[in-house]
Amino acid sequence: MISNKLPKMFYGGDYNPEQWDHGTHLEDLDLFKQAGIDIATLNVFSWARNQPDEVTYHLEWLDGYINSLYESGIYTCLATSTGAHPAWMATRYPDILRVEKDGRKRKFGGRHNSCPNSPTYRHYSVEMARRLAERYKEHPAILVWHISNEYGGECYCDNCEKAFRVWLKQRYGTLDAVNKAWNTAFWGHTFYDWDEIVVPDHRSEEWGENSSSFQGISLDYTRFNSDSMLECYQLEYDAIRSLIPDALITTNLMGFYKPLDYFKWAKQMDIVSWDNYPGLNTPVSFTALAHDLMRGLKDGDPFMLMEQTPSQQNWQPYNSLKRPGVMRLWSYQAVAHGADTVMFFQLRRSIGACEKFHGAVIEHAGHANTRVFRETSALGHELQKLGDQLLDSRIEASVAILFDWDNWWAIDKSSGPTVALQYVEQIHKYYKALYNRNVQVDIVSVDSDLSGYKLVIAPVLYMVKPGLAAKLEQFTDNGGTFVTTFFSGIVNEHDLVTTGGYPGELRKLLGIWVEEIDALLPSMHNSIEMKETIGELSGSYQCGMLCDLLHTEGADVLAEYGTDFYKGMPVLTRHAFGQGEAWYIASDGEEDFVAGLLKHLCQQQNIEPVLDTPAGVEAGRRVKNGQAFLFLLNHNAEAATVELGSLQTSNMLDNQPVGSSIEVPGNGTIILSVK
Amino acid sequence: MISNKLPKMFYGGDYNPEQWDHGTHLEDLDLFKQAGIDIATLNVFSWARNQPDEVTYHLEWLDGYINSLYESGIYTCLATSTGAHPAWMATRYPDILRVEKDGRKRKFGGRHNSCPNSPTYRHYSVEMARRLAERYKEHPAILVWHISNEYGGECYCDNCEKAFRVWLKQRYGTLDAVNKAWNTAFWGHTFYDWDEIVVPDHRSEEWGENSSSFQGISLDYTRFNSDSMLECYQLEYDAIRSLIPDALITTNLMGFYKPLDYFKWAKQMDIVSWDNYPGLNTPVSFTALAHDLMRGLKDGDPFMLMEQTPSQQNWQPYNSLKRPGVMRLWSYQAVAHGADTVMFFQLRRSIGACEKFHGAVIEHAGHANTRVFRETSALGHELQKLGDQLLDSRIEASVAILFDWDNWWAIDKSSGPTVALQYVEQIHKYYKALYNRNVQVDIVSVDSDLSGYKLVIAPVLYMVKPGLAAKLEQFTDNGGTFVTTFFSGIVNEHDLVTTGGYPGELRKLLGIWVEEIDALLPSMHNSIEMKETIGELSGSYQCGMLCDLLHTEGADVLAEYGTDFYKGMPVLTRHAFGQGEAWYIASDGEEDFVAGLLKHLCQQQNIEPVLDTPAGVEAGRRVKNGQAFLFLLNHNAEAATVELGSLQTSNMLDNQPVGSSIEVPGNGTIILSVK
Amino acid sequence: MISNKLPKMFYGGDYNPEQWDHGTHLEDLDLFKQAGIDIATLNVFSWARNQPDEVTYHLEWLDGYINSLYESGIYTCLATSTGAHPAWMATRYPDILRVEKDGRKRKFGGRHNSCPNSPTYRHYSVEMARRLAERYKEHPAILVWHISNEYGGECYCDNCEKAFRVWLKQRYGTLDAVNKAWNTAFWGHTFYDWDEIVVPDHRSEEWGENSSSFQGISLDYTRFNSDSMLECYQLEYDAIRSLIPDALITTNLMGFYKPLDYFKWAKQMDIVSWDNYPGLNTPVSFTALAHDLMRGLKDGDPFMLMEQTPSQQNWQPYNSLKRPGVMRLWSYQAVAHGADTVMFFQLRRSIGACEKFHGAVIEHAGHANTRVFRETSALGHELQKLGDQLLDSRIEASVAILFDWDNWWAIDKSSGPTVALQYVEQIHKYYKALYNRNVQVDIVSVDSDLSGYKLVIAPVLYMVKPGLAAKLEQFTDNGGTFVTTFFSGIVNEHDLVTTGGYPGELRKLLGIWVEEIDALLPSMHNSIEMKETIGELSGSYQCGMLCDLLHTEGADVLAEYGTDFYKGMPVLTRHAFGQGEAWYIASDGEEDFVAGLLKHLCQQQNIEPVLDTPAGVEAGRRVKNGQAFLFLLNHNAEAATVELGSLQTSNMLDNQPVGSSIEVPGNGTIILSVK
């Protein structure tokens, strides 16, 4: 359980009382109580208030808020305030200001603004964390420590350049090793001195968003940048940990956030927390995937939903309101995927600056008589009713999808064969095929233990890191089903091609040789012609984007290309490998094809969905001590009836038994306890 | 009257004889006479010629041109030449060069290139104005003083940064007041020293065109930038005024030009002048609106049409020729809306650099035998014929549309709720509904006296400045009809939200409370369902973009939303307030809806159109000493017949009486004197 | 013949053995032999390897590769390696780093990275060329010297700025002449000192890609930039030449590459070589045009096809494979248009950095058993079979199309009348009309001798340089047919308008006066209404983009505009001039119109096509010592039958006689020897 102090889902969110007067704070306390709020995240953006100069610290104002909240039954998630440095620090110590990718030095402003290799930033941020820990190490109100805020972005300053060289020395030892890893013989890039290495930005190797003359340099810089921020986090973490041995420490992540390798970060976090801000066009399946990724960061441990908006956002082009019920629905979707908290940004809406049109529990009207407040309040009382029943329960999955940040970076930086390839879209495509059937999935890293899974899917496994091929072979050899796709097995961890024939290190496992890779215009397509019926798959399916031209080396051909000069070449192969099978999908198939194939592979491996539900109704299951909890999430605007068959269940909110079917209202959620 | 020296509409335009040899100038004099030209704007871009170094001035060349023109009956509009600084000044005094929004220092080049807070610029520009005034203070040829040229753009240099801090000190007095106005408690932006404040550009608070992390900072910087340029203008103005007490001083404005608050500028101008360059897709109603805005800057005083092209422009993507008749038509459209001059850029076409494909009275062919010359010449002779009859006549309007630059800036900088909201488009939408019916409109500022109007429309009055709500209440209380729309009454002059419920300070007047604001995707719509017939309005109309979810507090509901979860909530309300009514339109309705509503409100208030005309035929009226002049402007390519009914009129160009109807040729104009 | 050492078409390409180990090199030698490869371009990107610091040179590694290749029967095209400077040079001598157009100084990285006016670059690049020449001046393996690589880009650094002023002094002599040429009286740009002149970049005169406030300045800077790089080339050339009197020296050009005036460059090259990389959407007619341009650079001399990809590229958005046969087809297309070599980039695919997904003769698989290797190998053996038969044969053309880089630059920089005008597209439009009928064409410069042609076409001859009008008059007077179009004869070589009436210096020849130029929106059109039938032209054709409004001054009107206010004005005129005719096409006509007109003009002048072929089948002819070689290139995917009529031919690959018709396979090529 996250904390024994509060044996229920924490409910609350970001609270910035420093923007308001005392009278408003008193109103807030009353409204929080009405809404069933029991946790407030304080001090996220208060660095400037906390520290007006190098030597002065004013933390006493925090005491007041922590205490008055605590007296009202509200715990504190205490941020360290280092997410945005003070103006005076930028003016007096410009090393704290980042240099943008185009080489321009920033001035004070905005939010994500501290260079992660700034000595000033590291010094003062750690000192702030240390002082906060010292001050509040025994305060009973503190439930969670929240370091900085939404780490992100990149810096290309001289300090980063120097630190990059040091990072490289530590990673490679010698310049020779660097030259080899980056293949600098190409284009005469050989480095004879560490100081000749410069940051790969728009002034040197990169000319656009996803571009580089030297993928190896850019890849390492991305790793370095992620590591640099992680070091900043770690320094604050250590400062707190050294004073509070049992502190629960986190920082709020952002789902599929490209610049940071969260698998690496999560190792340094006591609990994962994240901010869920789907856009207007984000499919619910993608939100589900993001939750599963966040859960996967720490091998299935429950996570904190640290932020979501109660109503609307402000930074989308068009910021629609969450429809009635949707805030509750999406909150429970998070819980169904492993969240043990439900928290908002924010509790009271700001009146000025760029987030004043971002929703809040307490709107600008300032009172309880709003739709948003009524909905958040109702949810608060539900969570009180649910108590600790769901806390610490787990999701059980037999299917794993392999996700890897390095692979994402390498694919995006690749020059050719196509700009159309989006790694996360491919991950989502395979995930969605399972999600639509309520098959639970774990998102795992290349370091994860795969032995507990029956089916492992690794879409576009372009980069194969050391040891991974052997692990996949072992998994398959032991009876697992392995699936991968076109543009896999191409490079090693340095983005250097494994010569001798694609898919390189995966060739033996897959029993194929890919000779060429054709890239199609978006308007062009090929087809997948099934040679036999496989499950529900038969006939012809559209494919495109990339088409591998492959030869089998032991694999069976289950489908062929239907057109072009490679008509008749294999597009879907299956390789018996030990006790298992390794499947290869040589082109980007349409959704029905992927769905049909994965359904077949699940059936082969006796992988059952949680429940069969009508379209648009998501079913999830969490389990604790043998007790299952079933979430029915109706993402349709209209009511839907879910057949429960012989399941013996009761509705957790009213404890009433439920029959063999149940109607879920439009945008509604029902949580059942399964006997 | 603008000037007694020339009791007719000035006709002429920019003339740059310094680009030509003497023989050409002599040809020009002859051609000007042929064309009926009587004013030439000189010295617009001659600073480099006038002043080859810090101490040397060569103004004697100007004498020659002023004199030879004057001897040919042509007066001078004398520019001060400070619109483009000399190269030597940029090389030797780089403080005169601007810094772009992305932080890059400019080099010499282009046109709008002087930093408004450059000590060098201020020193030498004022000295130039002073010397010109000294030299020509008694010259009879000078009709108008034209300071600089098309002030515009922004600068983000260190001098501007310093001057911004001074401007803030003057405006706010204390840093505490600044911190409060900008809500710097948000994102930890608290400033402890004035020198911590930096310019809000791409290096700090703004990342795109209409974006800011801190609306308050950006808004103030926009105001400061407008004020800085106004100070430059004012310094030259004072230099001239101190030497020539009766000088007529102006600078050429540019219609809806966002960076400069022309209402503030116009207070410092003796007469408004502006440059009218509609694009290929500019509706004629928008040009009409721009004229009305220019007239509104000085409460209805006639203005100078300082520039327009006789034929084509060069900076549009596609620069089509003005069709036969269109130059005359658009010239008279300007007059119908308040212009008392008709002037061109330019009189002779340049042979080199970026405006060589911009039209001129004398084309590259260099003679009179061109379509363009024939048309300009014909117009010149018409204007001579018209004499002073129209001069100083006024437009009488019972309808005012409120326009405010601060409101424009604030809406554009807003982060959320939608990028689709374009303030000027909304202004135009309401204007066009009246224009299409020939209802004359004044464009007024928030400082204007409203007592003379029957109907005041304030589309998207997002920002309500101090005193405005009371003024609108008084206007309505006295029997006026007030109309405003969605996203109004949200913030004060600092862009800080008025809490307690939207529309804030307008809530009492409108009798409503707006609880939420929904933003729709461009592809989405809602509908306005009329509850009763109002004038010609009945049934259903499309709406979208933003949808306020509102509750009445005294107002009547005249229409409701037709769909979505707020179906049945009010979308059109009317609040009886004193002797008048306050209307609220909660969403962006289609044109027919706006047209029908405004027609009804005009009829209620007995506001009559100038005349009923066929579609595409604009009718305008100017009045002088009880004498009305009627402009019939046919914007169609085909002829149209206008019914005059019982009006007793005569054609001002031939003094012939006109019957009960008259045919206006395609692209033709007829000006009638009404008995 | 290019070289007596190898009496056949050189076959090979770029080879970078420094990226590989020795074992791989030995495999390469074997594979090269299998593929019939006999030339390898070495040392293109080896500067860093060759020279690790200022004083140390390591060229001995090259000896090994040159020798081992030579022993395997493979000659060397020796690059000087100066296409990419070493990292240490950038770090220690930053003057070698360019400044981008936006004013940002580059760091080390990328490829085209040396400032052409860098003293460091000039010093070390020449020294490298000198040392290579010294070392290999007597080596029998060296066939060709390849200076640097794909010169290109621009620099805007302070050294370039200073060198630009010197270049201007040399060109103009006095500042007065510069001021006049640039028309600096416009916008007060007068320069009083050379040091006031700055580079025209985004900091000064240019704000986008094709934009400038001062066309004259921008035009001269473009010339200067081309000249600066040419000087770099020339310095290396001289270093080699001084040591090797009979060296064959080239650099690889890039077809229609805008920044460099290749006509000027070619004068300094012993043989033209170029890199042919058509994109996915490049029409085959455009590739043909590019080959003809490259051949035209040296008045019809055969050229080297220095680079093409054997299979796919990597820098296109979508990099499709060359379909089976296409590599061979496009290789022979090059030969048909004058290539005397067939060479690839590259011989073995890199494993890392941005070109690892660019095709190569030896793919990542590393062996001969690939489609790509089989196709390249087959072609290699064909070329061996063809021997020297085709070498040094010529293309004979009676039609010339005039192309001029200055004209291209000036049109693109023009502000107005339309952004739609693309000079090269217009060149291609006229070329394609001839290409489609297999009429052979020379692309000539404004300096070329026109006396050998019957038909000269100069689309959009906007800029008329000194002497050109007289030359065109003489050509026509002597019986030639001259064709030009709208927007011609506008400016002189300084981009200053020739006043008095368009088309300026061409007015006498064309017998017309263009009064105005209308620009249409892309959605708008006019029509060409034929007054009489001319060849196959009759009735009505669409036109648009630009429409000249013209009056005849001696010319006959053959077609008129069909609509708009200039309906009935001439759109196609013919002027009898001496013994010839000068035609003017006043608007951008549709392809059928251009095709019909050019067919008629060819027939008038008895200009015969090479052969009548089915659509998509290109026929080309090279001639040597009275012996004709006929190329039949089928660009269709399907086979096509070509009628040869009474031609007595034999297939050059099997020496078998061919009858009166022959089937060419889809994507196939047949080469016939004509008796």
From TrEMBL, chains A, B, C:
Residues of the Beta-galactosidase trimerisation domain: 397-607
Catalyses: Hydrolysis of terminal non-reducing beta-D-galactose residues in beta-D-galactosides
Per the record, the similarity remark reads:
Belongs to the glycosyl hydrolase 42 family.
Q: Name one GO molecular function term.
A: beta-galactosidase activity
Q: What is its EC number?
A: 3.2.1.23
Q: Which named protein is this?
A: Beta-galactosidase
Q: Which SUPFAM superfamilies match?
A: (Trans)glycosidases (SSF51445), Class I glutamine amidotransferase-like (SSF52317)
The enzyme's first-digit EC class, named in words, is hydrolase
Q: Which PANTHER family match?
A: BETA-GALACTOSIDASE GANA (PTHR36447)
CDD domains assigned? A4_beta-galactosidase_middle_domain (cd03143)
Any idea where the Glycoside hydrolase family 42 N-terminal domain is? 14-386
The Beta-galactosidase C-terminal domain covers: 616-672
Q: Transmembrane region positions?
A: none
Task: Tell me the InterPro entries matching this sequence.
Answer: Beta_galactosidase_C, Beta_galactosidase_Trimer, Class_I_gatase-like, GH, Glyco_hydro_42, Glyco_hydro_42_N, Glyco_hydro_b
Q: Which domain of life is it from?
A: Bacteria
Identify the keywords attached in UniProt to this record, alphabetized.
Glycosidase, Hydrolase
